[in-house]
Automatic annotation (TrEMBL):
Pfam family, one: CMD
Any one Gene Ontology molecular-function term assigned to this protein's record: peroxiredoxin activity
PANTHER family recorded: 4-CARBOXYMUCONOLACTONE DECARBOXYLASE FAMILY PROTEIN, CARBOXYMUCONOLACTONE DECARBOXYLASE-LIKE DOMAIN-CONTAINING PROTEIN
Gene3D superfamilies: AhpD-like
UniProt source species: Hwanghaeella grinnelliae
Protein's recorded name: 4-carboxymuconolactone decarboxylase
Residue span, Carboxymuconolactone decarboxylase-like domain: 36-118
Length: 125
């Protein structure tokens, strides 16, 4: 493992998802799953999220769209929180979810609104 890339990815991961969530994920890692935590932190959070081509807010918008289309509610919830941390507003999320309804279907949009409301309530947004 490249420690420098891991550390940079960890910094980004915590900035987007929050220290508590990331520390909990890492703390629950076992000998079996730690390799995946290292992979996600290095590859996703450093090699992808730290690229210069898009800002974090844009990456969050893209993630919300893709995770909704793929019907990944657990990751959607995590990235909904990250989107708030990256400056995506409730009004912007509403528009994203309406767009999801058009291209991914009403059930996908309904789930997006439901999960986002839970996150807003938890975060006091």
């Amino acid at each position: 493992m490249d420690q420098e890339k891991f550390d940079k990815g960890l910094e980004t991961r915590k900035a987007v998802l929050g220290d508590e969530y990331v520390e909990k994920s890492l703390g629950k890692a076992t000998d079996f799953t730690m390799a995946f935590q290292e992979y996600v932190t290095t590859y996703c959070w450093n090699d992808c999220w730290n690229r210069e081509g898009l800002d974090r807010k844009t990456r969050s918008i893209i993630n919300l769209s893709m995770l909704s289309a793929l019907n990944r509610p657990n990751e959607f919830k995590v990235h909904c929180r990250g989107a708030v941390n990256n400056g995506v507003t409730k009004d912007e999320m509403r528009e994203i979810f309406l767009q999801i309804g058009t291209y991914c279907g009403v059930p996908a949009a309904l789930e997006a609104f439901k999960i986002a409301q839970e996150v807003f309530d938890e975060m006091g947004v």
